[in-house]
Specification:
alpha+beta, two-stranded antiparallel ribbon, 4 strands
Length: 95
Amino acid sequence: MFVVSLLASSLCLPSFADNMSKHKTAHTKSAMATKWPQICPVSGEQIASAKDAVGFSVYKGKTYYFCCSMCKPIFDKDPAKYAAAAAKHKYLAPM
């Protein structure tokens, strides 16, 4: 009986791979709908396409793309600060 209930409960839970696949698909659709080029909110560097972006973060429903691996953690520490500056076309850590 225990084995049957364990098996039944495991079949109802989505796997980690399924969740990652759904997230990746949603992001890919979002990136395709995004107008390119984008500007890195930290450095102000231009990013030609989603393939060229090194990473991304979502803040208040908007996706921000990054030019290099150093910009994403900087943005993630204080996204409000960098999002506000980027909206004014002021970049706080120009490269």
